[in-house]
């Protein structure tokens, strides 16, 4: 069950990460609408990081480190892109829903991090799965 959960969490990050790289226009427009500085380079970095992190989760590599990294990523995303407190009406409802949904994903990542071993990052063991 843990493996299936890791794959599903990985997919949650993999697909949007690929879209950030392959078709960035819509996400870039959203970031600019929210006033994110350096939106274009940050979007590319976010795409690469989410794809690599997703692959780590899905293949059981550096699961704790990756999960905690995604926790920080979600906190930043929630603060910068799902700032419901700056909106009213339907847009505030939409951003609130995304904010709370992300908190649920964050909770799952914390559970996964707590259930996973800690190991150092070494090039020699990069391809080795976590125990």
Structure explained in plain terms:
There is one protein chain. The chain is mainly alpha-helical and 131 residues long. The chain has one domain (2-114). 73% of the residues lie in helices and 0% in strands. The chain has helices at 2-22, 25-33, 39-58, 63-81, 89-114. The mean pLDDT is 92.
* Envelope shape: globular
What is the number of strand segments? 0
Strand percent estimate: under 5%
**Biggest pleated-sheet summary:** none
The tally of helices reads 5
Write the element-wise H/E pattern from the N-terminal end onward: HHHHH
Total separate domains: 1
> What share of the residues lie within helices?
over 70%
Q: Which secondary-structure class do the elements indicate?
A: mainly alpha
Radius of gyration: 16 Å
Unreliable stretches: none
Average residue-wise pLDDT: 92
Name the assembly state.
single chain
Could you list some keywords that capture this structure?
131 residues, mainly alpha, 5 helices, 73% helix, globular
Task: Produce the secondary structure layout.
Blueprint: H1 2-22, H2 25-33, H3 39-58, H4 63-81, H5 89-114
Helix pairs in contact: 1-3, 3-4, 4-5
Condensed summary:
This protein is mainly α.
């Amino acid at each position: 069950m843990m493996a299936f959960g890791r794959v599903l969490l990985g997919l949650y990050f993999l697909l949007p990460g690929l879209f950030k790289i392959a078709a960035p226009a819509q996400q870039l427009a959203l970031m600019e609408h929210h006033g994110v500085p350096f939106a274009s380079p940050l979007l590319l970095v976010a795409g690469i990081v989410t794809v690599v992190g997703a692959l780590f989760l899905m293949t059981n590599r550096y699961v704790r480190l990756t999960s905690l990294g995604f926790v920080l990523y979600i906190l930043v995303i929630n603060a910068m892109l799902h700032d419901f407190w700056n909106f009213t009406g339907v847009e505030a409802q939409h951003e609130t829903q995304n904010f709370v949904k992300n908190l649920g994903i964050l909770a799952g990542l914390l559970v996964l991090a707590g259930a996973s071993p800690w190991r150092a990052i070494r090039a020699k063991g990069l391809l080795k799965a976590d125990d």
